[in-house]
Amino acid sequence: MSANARSDGAARTGRVEMRNIVKCFPGVRANSQVCFDIDPGEVHALLGENGAGKSTLMRQLYGMYQPDEGEILIDGRRLVFRSPADAIRAGIGMIHQHFMLVPTLTVAQNVALGQPSARAPLVDIKGVTERIETLAQEYGLKVDPRAYVWQLSVGEQQRVEILKALYRGAGLIILDEPTAVLTPQEVKDLFETLRRMVAEGHSLIFISHKLYEVMAISDRVTVLRDGKVIGTKLTREVTRDELVKMMVGREVKEVEARPLTPGPVRLRIRGLSAMGDRGTEALKDIDLDIRSGEIVGLAGVSGNGQRELAECLAGMRRPLAGTISAGGRDIGAASLNERVDAGMAYIPEERMRDGAIREFSVQENVFLHDRTKAPFARGIFLNFAKMRSHAAALVRDFSVKTASLDTPIKNLSGGNIQKLIMARELSRKPMVLVAAQPTRGVDIGATDYIHQRLLEQRESGTAILLVSEDLDEIRALSDRIAVMYEGRIIGIVERGEASVEQIGLMMAGVAMSDAMKG
Amino acid sequence: MKGLISLDVISGIIHTMIGLATPFLYAAIGETFAQSSGVVNLGVDGIMLLSAFAAFYVSLVSGSLALGLLAAAVVGLLMGLLMSLVSVTLKAEQGVSGIGLYMFGLGMSSLLFKVLIGTVKTIDGFKPLPIPFLSDIPVVGKMLFRTNILVYCAFLLVPLAWWVLNKTTLGLKIKAVGQAPAAADSLGISVNGIRYLSVCIGSVLAGIAGASLSISLLNLFQDNLTAGQGFIAVALVYFGGWSPVGVLGGALLFSIVNSFQLWMQVLGAKIPSNIAVMLPYLLTIVALTISVNRARQPAALNKPFERGES
Amino acid sequence: MRLRRAFIAFLLAVGLVGAAVAAPFRIAVVMPSATTDMAFSQSMWSALMIIQKEMGGPSALEIKYTDNMYNVPDAAAAIRDYASQGFDIVIAHGSQYGSSVQEIATDFPQTTFAWGTDVNTFGLPNVYAYTAAAEQGGFVNGVLAAKLTKSRKIGVTGPVEVGDAKTYIDGFVQGVMSVNKGITVSKTWTGSFSDVALMTAAAKTHIANGADVLTGSSQSVVGSIGAAQDNGHVMWFGTQADQASLAPNLVVCSQVYDWTGMLREIIAQHKAGVLGGKTYVLTLENKGLKMAFNPSYRLPGFAKAAAERAIKGIVDGSIKVQP
């Protein structure tokens, strides 16, 4: 089975075929008669919305799940993978979206883990270290084998994952959303490494929902939707719009923001500092103004203070110092209700934790804030008829797909829950809107809808802070982009002023003046 | 306090400490293996009790201490398999199954003692085994090198365990399974297999800890012979930050304070006895508060593994 | 614990089915340690076995017991269980059970409760209290120890400074001092009635410090005796039960608690309709305390003579021992 294990640089896995794969989980048919194949030396992209069945399919190829039906063949020979160990022996490696690393061990120990040792029962750290250095050299994967994994950046951790697969002689490597956590520079480096791997004869499966990456790296692309293969195309013969249509099932146009002249300052932040969850200072001396009719995008690598800033504005985190004023009114110490009264609205990052109550119905979730106000309440009594008609209007206006107003919100898809939360927040006609990761985990159709709504809100004069890790989203919608690094705003650029690369440099901590030179 | 600083007294304190530390070392180093793989075994005390009984009874009946020791190890292994079955395969709450194991060991050892032996008896346990040359060194020789085989082995276990956990492929797997089971699984390591092995290593050592009480240090068996030492051993694992060397430090600290307070009482120091007996526990709590390093705690401690979660 | 209790109860029940023709007299006892502890619990258990034999076996006297009840709430539950099952006499054999007895006894006025060691009957007509003047035997042991020690260092290993553990040791020290004030008696308390390992370490510490005589109280002294055994040249003085069998060469003498006299009287009173209200104190004079000289230990004549003088003196009141 292990024809190719550990032959320097020349690792090859033959033609891999998955035939008629069916995999069901309780209540879900995750893969339905899926056929997928990959030739040696090929980059085959697997494209699809969240929940389309991409990861499930690949976990079967890696032996983590066993298919209910169908078969896996390598060079025409049928193989059964009972565990990842079998897949590894067959020359298959997988880079998981959530890294499979042991943070308390060193890079070399992580790489050696579970592999036979030349000096058994001892770990051959010296041998492993040398081999890592050779591989790192060969593929441009710079990482210190002696460092502990917890000391590494996300990009370095990903390089360790790739080294692990290469060390095991994987000829075929599955990359599950490898760019989701990387800065643009790191994405560039990753693609460089991937190209070298292909040149060495490796085959790659590249899972993504980012189209431009798929267009940039792959030879062929297979689109999955609702667990079924919609089609497999040569990348050079297909356009971006065609792929979107295959993924979503209908046409989606890119949004564009009309030029507008912003009005007066609605949200003013001065000298804001706050502690993070780990007890360290997560926000340091933030100054930011947002005007009426303006979207300010807050960019940055996850964990640099964006979430804490949004929470400070929403009143869910107490600032250490500094002031926040909305429409001239100081809300730094205001309660949640006072903020709502001051015209603030908040679309939280964790929509199921902070934005909705799972077991409550659609209608009840609409009235989490406004249940004590006219016209929905008189004294201590609720006016159910009014509430129902209001909820029905929101569901209709924001095209939320739900069986009824009484359906528990947990039964809705992520996109529809987000639309409902948005409908609730926007129906109050807020003066300031904080939208944290409004399209994360939301399918392309809903994303498009949410983007349009945000732009409409901008035109109606709301000041919007858009927090997002999706740089494309930020660039498409924002009038100005503020980049955060280690709790500070490291720079603010106007629309069109900076390239993706320049923003990426700032996200990595390069000062604005230096980044803009490059 | 007079005479507390004399060489004889210091040597006495250390000699007593070494004896007291022995069962803690076996049990706590064993527990270090189990916890490093992600399983908290609170049943250590129960394993110690039943194994102490098995060692005592088999030695008494067969006249062979080696057979007694073997019996303790076998009982430890069987109880380790039981713990693994319940907490690893069946994924029961580890704290509850550990307490269950403790109750089983406590009750079973007491019942068997009543039925098979009936009354407290003493036997000749392992005899002191002076190490040639070393035992002739003045003071130190008497202090360290004139004790019995099980005591020597307890101290040799520390570097051995350190070596296994830090230098061998097995140790790497154990730690990986305790820190990031999903990662270990993705590399084809059997998470449950490694946990079974680690829990069983720990339980066999707990069994030997029990034997060290009944056939090496105390040379008798009585109901609830351990008086909770197994639980202190579990605490020592936290104290030692999941490292055999840390566990050694904790075991020695706890034992030396105990030994010190006994000597103070014997020498007639004017300290109320209830304060004196509190000292080891007090000091342990203080040291635990200061020293505990949560960062080294196995991240998957107490969490059964299910593939495909997260 | 409950399972084990049920199991033992089941065994006893099976044994009793055949015999239970005429309704037997029924006694239940709850004890803090095992019936085989060579100390406090065993002293009561042995006495009950003797009484049972005297009365004609299990068909005449049914005895049930729950041991290892160091947890007081568990013990209280057991005491209440037995009372509600209609036992004639329920013995709560532990000074820590006092408040439980006080509370339960008022709910079962037809049942006799006996508890010790203490002197308080709470003014209830169905409660007996019992205790032992442990200082008396302690004094006798102390005299013997003082006569026999060569190193003039004596070690005492006790659990906690309360009850008969304390009075025994106080008497022992008085006995030693009555012979020779130059002897050093050092005491260690382990803080636990059951920690055998620590008791052993304490005894070893005394021995390392030069003591050639040891004594002590509680069920954990088996550890001290083991330590003496290991050394081989240290004398041991016992209390509560006859500990000679543990180390036939080293045990010189044990003070034995003999509860049979008290039990006979309580049973007779119960049959006569008197359910309690009295305190029993075991003394050398009323033969509740006995000095068991170990026949296998070759005790020099002068020492034995001194011990017998001390016993006589205590009985006739010419020697007063402070508890």
Question: Descriptors for this entry?
Answer:
heterotrimer; A: 518 residues; alpha/beta; Rossmann fold; 6-stranded mixed beta sheet; B: 310 residues; mainly alpha; ABC transporter involved in vitamin B12 uptake, BtuC; 0% strand; globular
What report would you give on this structure?
The complex is a heterotrimer of chains A (518), B (310) and C (323). Chain A is an alpha/beta fold and 518 residues long. Helices cover 33% and strands 25% of the residues of chain A. Chain A folds into three domains: 14-91 and 171-247, Rossmann fold (3-Layer(aba) Sandwich), CATH 3.40.50.300; 102-169, no CATH class; 266-517, P-loop containing nucleotide triphosphate hydrolases (Rossmann fold, 3-Layer(aba) Sandwich). Chain A has 18 helices and 22 strands. In chain A, the strands form five sheets. Chain A has a six-stranded mixed beta sheet, with helices on both faces. A six-stranded mixed beta sheet of chain A has the order 16-19-20-13-21-22, with helices on both faces. Chain A has a four-stranded antiparallel beta sheet with strand order 2-1-4-5, covered by helices on one side. The longest helix of chain A has 16 residues, at 184-199. Chain A is globular, with a radius of gyration of 25 Å. In chain A, 46% of the residues are buried. Residues 1-10 of chain A have low confidence and may be disordered. In chain B, helix 1 (7-36) crosses helix 6 (149-167), helix 1 packs across helix 10 and helix 6 (149-167) packs across helix 7. Chain B has twelve helices and no strands. Chain B has one domain (7-296): ABC transporter involved in vitamin B12 uptake, BtuC. Chain B is globular, with a radius of gyration of 20 Å. The N and C termini of chain B lie far apart (60 Å). Chain C is built from ten helices and twelve strands. Chain C folds into two domains: 22-132, Response regulator (Rossmann fold, 3-Layer(aba) Sandwich), CATH 3.40.50; 134-257 and 288-316, Response regulator (Rossmann fold, 3-Layer(aba) Sandwich), CATH 3.40.50. Chain C has a six-stranded parallel beta sheet with strand order 2-1-3-4-5-11, sandwiched between helices. In chain C, strands 7-6-8-9-10-12 form a six-stranded mixed beta sheet, with helices on both faces. By secondary structure, chain C is an alpha/beta fold. Chain C is 43% helix and 20% strand. Chain B binds chain C through residues 12, 15-16, 19-20, 23, 103, 107, 110-111, 113-114, 118-122, 213, 217-220, 222-227, 229, 258-259, 262-263, 265-268, 273-274, 276-278, and chain C through 1, 3-4, 7, 33-38, 42, 68, 155, 160-161, 184, 186-192, 194-198, 200-202, 204-206, 208-209, 219-220, 222-223, 225-226, 229-230, 245-247.
